[in-house]
Amino acid sequence: MKVTQVSENLWQLTRLGAFNCYLVREVDGLTLVDTGMSGSANSILATAVSLNQPITRITLTHAHGDHAGSFDAVAAQLQDADIVLNARTVQFLVGDLTLLSTEPQDKLRGSFVTCTTPATRQLQSGDCLGSLRVVAAPGHTPDQIAFFDERDGSLIAGDAFQTAGGTAVAGQMRWLFPFPAMATWHKETALQTAYTLRDLNPTRLAVGHGRVLKNPQTAIEKAIREAEKSMKVR
Ligand SMILES: [Zn+2]
Prior knowledge:
By secondary structure, this protein is of the alpha/beta class. The chain has a single domain, classed as 4-Layer Sandwich (Metallo-beta-lactamase, Chain A). The protein is built from 7 helices and 15 strands. Helix 4 links the parallel strand 6 and strand 7. Helix 6 (187-198) packs antiparallel against helix 7 (217-232). The radius of gyration is 16 Å and the shape is globular.
C-alpha cells in the first residue's frame, strides 16, 4: 500500500494504484475514512503503526465494496475504536438496498457489500466527526457522505468526484478509469452534490480514486461544466 502524506493531518493510502482510503490525524488518534477493498486491513493497520498513532474512529463514505470491503476486518482488530457511519450507509451494509420514496428511483449500480460490525454512532449531514464536518453527497450512491476538515479546508469526497484518468463529477466517464462512472446511480443528483462540494471552497480534493488535488477549484469547475453539458444533450 502506498502511503502519501497530503497535509499535516491527512494521509492517503493507495492500493493497486487507484483505490484510496484516508487517515486523518486528531488529538486523540487517527480517523480512518474508508477501508479499501477486501484484503486491505493489515496494510491499513500497519500504516497506523508506522505513524505511531492509534486508529480511534472508523467511518465510510459509502457502502461500495472498494470502500467498505475491509470494514469488518479492520473493525475486528480495533475493538476500542468508535464505528461512526451515515445512517443511510448502515441500511445498505445490512443488505437493505431499498430506495427511499424521496430518492430518484433509478437502478443502483456498483457492488454493495454487507457487513456485520454495528455502528457505535450514526451520522447525519452537518454532524462533526472530530474535526471533520459531514456533508451529504448523494448521487454516486444514495448513501454517500463527504468529510470537510474545518482546520484546513481539505475535502474527502468519496466518489463524488474522481481524479484518476482526469477530474470528473461522478457519473462522467473517464475511459482511463471508468469504474466510478459505471458504478454511479444518479448523475443529476451527483451534479447537485458537485455544486454543494464546490461551494465549500476546499483547499484540497481527496477522492476515492486518483491523486489528491491541491487548490482544486479550477479542476472542479471544469468537471462541473462538462457534466452540465453532457446532461443537456441527454
Ligand atoms: Zn463507489
